[in-house]
Write the structure tokens for this entry.
Amino acid sequence: MSDNTVGSFAESDPVKLPDLSTVFAKRAERLRALAPGHELEGFLRMIAEVIAAQHEALADLPPGRLPASSSRAPLDPATLERDETWRAALARILERLDEATLPEAARLARAKLSAAPVAELEAMADRFLEGDVRAAEAAEMVFVAAALQVAWTRMAALLDVSGLDAAANSGKGGQCPACGSPPVAGMVLPGGTKFGHRHLHCSLCATAWRYVRTRCVHCGSTDKISFRQLAGTAYLKAECCEACGGYSKVFYVESVRALEPLADDLASLGLDVLVGEEGFSRVANPFVLGVMSGTDGNN
Ligand SMILES: [Zn+2]
Ligand SMILES: [Zn+2]
């Protein structure tokens, strides 16, 4: 795996683990580039700051521990015994954020989390990882999500890639081979075959894995797949599945070079609204989980 193109990865890699030196830094940079003039500019700028804090938090975390090797999704939050690393990451992220850049709700959330007992933090982490986020705690969950991403991304970076099977779950759906989480988006890179391969990118641990094009990431169906897009965004489509009612986003890297899956997903929530109105659904981006799919006061 040493001959990868810098800043990208070889088309032939079935699984690509995150590079800790760049994963959050590139994401923050991309979000800062997407923010100016965007209808969600303030939100995107705030998340860019949170992601920059994720990058810094990686530098001085306690050692932590990796699970014993396992054939499938060794970092699955449902089976992994979570250690204190994510709480150390949370404390560092909260410390590093500049109060002045935070909106009121985020300042309150930060104060609340800084004072919260361990048991309450752990319960919030459980709810996030189970996708059971309440709309009322959406602001706190931005920071909880950020901290869990730091912990999981670091563990993923230390895995042995040869032990991960990109196809392990492909009969059923498109979950991360490292942690079993849903993808935040798919990227189609040029090269390889005439049409290029698709890689899905994990919403939690930033691992990427190859996945058949035009195949539902939720149920694995290849029938009744159709695409939607917003005017003026040829590089982005929603792949919608009539079989299960799910959809996922696909970015086409040949037309926009600087794409970053999580950042570009956040900056294209308009497409989620469009396909949501048609009745399609997916697991929302971790930073808007409480807003897009909160379990009270919303839906
Ligand atoms: Zn993952
Ligand atoms: Zn489906």
